[in-house]
């Protein structure tokens, strides 16, 4: 009897449920163990089906990881979230002689530090870079905002779960003193989201505008493979209003593109991400192994422009991309981790997908209000309707599903955008809770407006390219210069 390969999956959200789903569907017949901070119902079902074991513990703790590795003796590790990568969990697997799908601590810095990522892009002349300034104190940031009149984006200088970004569009020559005074009140909030000793707390970048999209690239340190594009919908409420979240939904397709991104822009983006991996190697001496993503925007300044990087799969982008892969993606994960990605092939369902995230009332403002609610899902009925469910911030407690305060579910439908959106609409009747559910129905239904916006931007950046001024911009400030 052939021994099944043992995989230890680290993480507890919908992204990890998707990774478990792809491993479980593989022809390799993996035995899938998991380590999470709570029992994710979707991951738990897969663990049980493969005859493995579920461990509960701190996914960021080296001691906990070592203990679970000792018990499982896995052949392969798969790390889903960013925080374990930042804490060097992938390095622990490698020190134990275990192949792992996940960036090393040094390589994951491309996501952990937005300041380091910007410095890297400028040092290595990577296209799509924005000008920026970093600040170590809230006081210096506030002083800069008071003195400078212009359009900027203010962000935590390090990873903060996609939160805390404030964009200031100054359509006049200068902001009035009162407006600038008001803007400094946001700085305290942003500064509180990232405060690592010796690191910048806040980064201010030049503001750009355009459709956003994400390209994920697999790398085994030698070979790279690009995956289909996806677009994340970050704002909490309908029509893109409300506070930013980790993502209320996503779209991918058709084929490897999005309707508003050309093949040339796709290839340019792929080149940017590959050049970034080369730069990471030059700076750290370590080859990138796992998945890296460019969170991009199509802008008049550069065309494809880097907003930030991920050192892991985006969430909910993973739920939009992975179910569209008709090839054995579980095996591709293994080939990536073991240095044999050149043997992999990616086959894509040409039809697009839509992901709709579902949370409970209170999200994203009050995690406490959104926590502790019962949620009921009729998986069989949803499957009959053509929808796949991935479980996120919801725990299996006894025989009940209890929300944990973030996005509880990600519902996926594949088909033409309108068809997929209608399937999702029908599937919502099979979800109930003891409180109000929060979700967006416009995801996948705004493609036409984004195509029109992209065409205008494309005309502008192509003209800049012909004139040899791609990436060149001028700005003004009271003291004669910004950057």
Automatic annotation (TrEMBL):
<dbReference type="InterPro" id="IPR013815">
    <property type="entry name" value="ATP_grasp_subdomain_1"/>
</dbReference>
<dbReference type="GO" id="GO:0005524">
    <property type="term" value="F:ATP binding"/>
</dbReference>
<dbReference type="InterPro" id="IPR020561">
    <property type="entry name" value="PRibGlycinamid_synth_ATP-grasp"/>
</dbReference>
<dbReference type="InterPro" id="IPR037123">
    <property type="entry name" value="PRibGlycinamide_synth_C_sf"/>
</dbReference>
<dbReference type="GO" id="GO:0004637">
    <property type="term" value="F:phosphoribosylamine-glycine ligase activity"/>
</dbReference>
<dbReference type="InterPro" id="IPR011054">
    <property type="entry name" value="Rudment_hybrid_motif"/>
</dbReference>
<dbReference type="InterPro" id="IPR020562">
    <property type="entry name" value="PRibGlycinamide_synth_N"/>
</dbReference>
<dbReference type="GO" id="GO:0006189">
    <property type="term" value="P:'de novo' IMP biosynthetic process"/>
</dbReference>
<dbReference type="InterPro" id="IPR000115">
    <property type="entry name" value="PRibGlycinamide_synth"/>
</dbReference>
<comment type="similarity">
    <text>Belongs to the GARS family.</text>
</comment>
<keyword id="KW-0436">Ligase</keyword>
<dbReference type="Pfam" id="PF02844">
    <property type="entry name" value="GARS_N"/>
</dbReference>
<dbReference type="InterPro" id="IPR016185">
    <property type="entry name" value="PreATP-grasp_dom_sf"/>
</dbReference>
<dbReference type="GO" id="GO:0009113">
    <property type="term" value="P:purine nucleobase biosynthetic process"/>
</dbReference>
<comment type="pathway">
    <text>Purine metabolism; IMP biosynthesis via de novo pathway; N(1)-(5-phospho-D-ribosyl)glycinamide from 5-phospho-alpha-D-ribose 1-diphosphate: step 2/2.</text>
</comment>
<dbReference type="GO" id="GO:0046872">
    <property type="term" value="F:metal ion binding"/>
</dbReference>
<keyword id="KW-0658">Purine biosynthesis</keyword>
<keyword id="KW-0547">Nucleotide-binding</keyword>
<keyword id="KW-0067">ATP-binding</keyword>
<dbReference type="Pfam" id="PF02843">
    <property type="entry name" value="GARS_C"/>
</dbReference>
<dbReference type="Pfam" id="PF01071">
    <property type="entry name" value="GARS_A"/>
</dbReference>
<feature type="domain" description="ATP-grasp">
    <location>
        <begin position="118"/>
        <end position="338"/>
    </location>
</feature>
<dbReference type="InterPro" id="IPR020560">
    <property type="entry name" value="PRibGlycinamide_synth_C-dom"/>
</dbReference>
<protein>
    <recommendedName>
        <fullName>Phosphoribosylamine--glycine ligase</fullName>
        <ecNumber>6.3.4.13</ecNumber>
    </recommendedName>
</protein>
<dbReference type="InterPro" id="IPR011761">
    <property type="entry name" value="ATP-grasp"/>
</dbReference>
